[in-house]
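Quality-control log, excerpt.
Job 1 of 2 completed; input and output follow.
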Amino acid sequence: QVQLVESGGGLVQPGGSLRLSCAASGFTLDHYAIGWFRQAPGKEREGVLCISSNDASTKIANSVKGRFTISRDNALNTVYLQMNSLKPEDTAVYYCAAESPDYYCSGPDDFRGMDHWGEGTLVTVSS
């Protein structure tokens, strides 16, 4: 069974950092494109990052550029979203999504068409 599970969310003060994890089961992530997106209360889903299959390219939303990065640990079949210099407006439920091999991200909103989505993890940025 194909499954994505996010973890690592929590409460953090403005200016702080968090690292979210997206662990896959039922398939191998390393050749898949991965998208991270978020949804704040009362708002539309927003793409944050999309990394292409085989890390061919990474597309990053302007709202998080310079603060968020993505990385893979193929041995653990896990993708990470490192979030630094967090702001209150980053408060949202964060999700990861995966698309089949050989997918090239055209933008951070590519998650919308991806095959597999996780259940999300809540990030709250507040003092």
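Job 2 of 2 completed; input and output follow.
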Amino acid sequence: VQLVESGGGLVQPGGSLRLSCVASGFTFSSSAMSWARQAPGKGLEWVSRIYSNGDTSYANSMKGRFTISRDNSKNTVYLQMNSLKPEDTAVYYCAVGNYRGPRGQGTQVTVSS
């Protein structure tokens, strides 16, 4: 399993970012995929999940701001993040299946003015 996240960076409060995660080494199209994040000094937090049939779920604090999607032709899962807040600052990871499953190296998102 290999997962490579990208798209993080520094953004002002209220701004947007789109994270990408390219997957390989397993049957992506039949796998649920999750996004998780870890803020400095805090534990791993579940963000969102997308199932193989396209159904999605979100943590309450992300509902209405974040959108997860997938492109099975590109073995890629995305996380569109809008209306970002300073408390969204974290390293964001994608994972296979459950958010505690195999993860990539992460991509840093910093929300600051």
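Post-run check on job 2. The chain has a mean pLDDT of 96.
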